[in-house]
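Researcher: Please translate sequence to structure tokens.
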Amino acid sequence: MSLNARSVVNMLDLLQATVLDVKPDVIEITESWTQDNILDSELILNGYQLFRCDGKTGNRGGGVLLYVRDLLNPIEFRTKTEYGENV
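Model: Translation complete:
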């Protein structure tokens, strides 16, 4: 499932309801508009591991989130890249 959120915090209830209905293995969210002042605990989806790369502080926009179903045993892998926002 892929979503361009334009602020995921404002649509968390809709996201949670959609996830309960669709039950995707992987959810990618672009334009999450998350920054370091938003805690992981505010973004949790039960049954999913969260990986995130926030937008640049002070700028509105940007940010990516990736949720992967716990049953898939996801792990984080960080690459060295010229692109700032990736997970």
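Researcher: Any highlights?
Model: The chain is about 15% helix and 25% strand.
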